[in-house]
Each structure stands twice: as C-alpha cells, then as structure tokens.
Write a structure and sequence with these properties.
Layout lengths: L2 H4 L4 E4 L13 H12 L3 E5 L4 H10 L4 E4 L4 E6 L2 E6 L6 H15 L4 E2 L10 E4 L9 H13 L3 E4 L3 E5 L5 H13 L8 E5 L5 H6 L4 E2 L16 E2 L4 H15 L16
Parallel strand pairs: 1-2, 1-10, 2-3, 10-11, 11-12
Antiparallel strand pairs: 3-4, 4-5, 6-7, 7-9, 8-9
Helix pairs in contact: 2-8, 4-5
Bound molecules: magnesium ion (MG).
C-alpha cells in the first residue's frame, strides 16, 4: 500500500477469525496493534460472523470503536458507557425455518455439527466444518451451503463455519449503517480499509479499493469473487499487526485528527 494511501486511512474494519487470530488465539502483537491504533486516532471496527454475545463483550472491553457481528445482522458500540445497538431486519418466521435447516444439514452432511457458539447467536445458524470437528472437504462445505440456499436462506463460508440467515443484510451494509447512524457521516471507502482472510469477507474486499488480506487469504482464492488489493507477508494476527504497523508508520499524528474518545469514560 503506497504511503499516499496509507496516510489517509482513518478507519480500519477488521475481521476476527484468522485475521486477528493465529491458530485460534489473538497474539500479543495483534492486541497491541489495536491499542496503538486507538492511541494514534485510527478507529478499528471489528467485523465478524461471531455471535451477538461475543460482540457485547468485545464492544465493552476491547480497544475498538464498534463491533459488527453475525455477518452484519447487528452492530454494537460503547458510547458514553452504554452499548448502542443496531439490528438488521429479518422475517418473523426466520427462527422456525433455521430449525428446519439445522435438522436437514445434520442429517445430510455427516461430520459437521452446530457451532459451539450457537447459543449466543441472535440471527444466524452456524455450522461447524473445522473448528471443533475434523476439517470437512470442499464438497461437504458446498452441500451445507446448498441446504441453506434450498430453503431460501443466505449462506456464507468463513474459515471455520458456514453461517446462514434470513434477511437482506451483510457485513458491508451494517458497516455503512454504523457509519451513517452512529458517526453521522457516510462511509468513505477511500479513507478506510478492511482487513480479512476468507470468502465471507468478499463484499468488503469488493467495496474497499484499498482492502487488505492477511497472508492466509491465499488458500481461499478459488472460492472468492473479489480479492483484496494488498496482502501481508505474515498470516493471521501477525499479518494484522504488520498491516497496522504500515498504516501507523505513514500516519501523520496531528492532535485534531485524533478520534474523539467517548467510548471508554474510565
Ligand atoms: Mg476470518
């Protein structure tokens, strides 16, 4: 990423699994990068397929500006000590139809299971093909996706789960709503970047002209219809830290550019 681009970036939208994490853990370098970004006035918004319950914790206790969860179903941000919540619309029979899908997936695709974090979800059904089960092959992942789609649901493949839901939303749409409704300004794709690693990040890779992938994104290229403009040398959380280092190296730290910090009053 050229310096002329890097110095304009004010907001970093970042996936969590295999982008902020390496082998399932957030390495110290990635967590420190979040703090360095905050101190230098870059707003980091986590954007994930992970459940609402996780997002509530992340938004409260991590040095981030907001958390978009369940693939864009919701956004939580701590503002003046309270969690502000945005939710996408969904059909009233969504829960009943997802229950039918759950039964059919478990019957039709041996080896998968309902994701361990399902109890903390509000909108979607997550099917584990890699996290706590032996990794399933591409054919099995396709069959899981097919069951969701045959019921009219949207299905997205992350690096560990297939997530499916009813409702017209995705990660990008909720990031745009967060920017407009919480910050009060439209999302400017030229002054922001997205960092991700897998096929469920494609709407973000397509939208942000300066999107970044961590090195492990390369294993998913055959399942992606849009690719990031830049790729780190390192994988996972170390790759995220490398990207943040690059942005901060070129950042001109002027006092008036600091993000107003009213999210952590203590
Ligand atoms: Mg990921």
């Amino acid at each position: 990423m050229p310096a002329s681009v890097a110095r304009r970036i004010k907001t970093v939208f970042a996936d969590i699994d295999d982008t902020l994490t390496t082998g399932g853990l957030v390495p110290a370098a990635a967590y420190q990068a979040l703090w360095r970004a905050r101190e230098r006035g870059i707003a980091v918004v986590l954007v994930t397929g992970r459940p609402a319950g996780w997002c509530d914790h992340l938004a409260r206790m991590w040095p981030v500006a907001a958390v978009v969860g369940e693939n864009g179903a919701l956004a939580f941000a701590l503002r003046a000590g309270k969690i502000q919540r945005l939710y996408a619309d969904r059909p009233s029979d969504a829960a009943r139809k997802l229950e039918q899908i759950r039964e059919q997936v478990l019957r039709d695709v041996p080896g998968c299971k309902v994701a361990a974090d399902q109890a903390y979800r509000e909108y979607d059904l997550a099917i584990d093909f890699c996290e706590e089960v032996p990794r399933l092959d591409d054919d099995a992942i396709d069959r899981i996706v097919h069951v969701f789609e045959s019921h009219g649901a949207t299905a997205k493949v992350s690096s560990i789960h297939v997530n499916g839901w009813f409702g017209e939303f995705d990660k990008l749409m909720m990031c745009q709503r967060w920017s407009a409704e919480v910050l009060g300004c439209p999302l400017d794709a030229r002054r922001a970047t997205f960092v991700g690693d897998s096929p469920n990040d494609v709407p973000m890779f397509r939208y942000f002209p300066h999107a970044c992938g961590v090195a492990n994104v390369k294993q998913w290229v055959h399942r992606m219809q849009a690719l990031p403009a830049y790729v780190s040398r390192e994988i996972g959380g170390e790759g995220f830290a490398e990207i943040m280092d690059h942005l901060l190296k070129h950042r001109v730290a002027l006092p008036h550019q600091r993000v107003r910090d009213d999210s952590h009053p203590a």
